[in-house]
Amino acid sequence: MSVPDSLDCDTCERTVSAEAAIRRETMGDLDPTKWQTFCCPHCGNRLKTVFVADE
Ligand SMILES: [Zn+2]
Description:
- The protein has strands spanning about 5-10, 15, 20-25, 35-40, 45-50.
- The mean pLDDT is about 90.
- It is mainly β.
- It has one domain (about 5-50).
- It starts with 5 loop residues before the first strand and ends with a strand.
């Protein structure tokens, strides 16, 4: 599993490219060097938590 090319926001019904998405640290106990939460740049909705360790 790695970073997808694009993510769909259910809230504002846009497709957000992975580059445009806002990356945040995950909530909880996940290692922030391995996992990042991608958020919609338009509405701030959390889109997906992605495993990024192989980037
Ligand atoms: Zn959105």
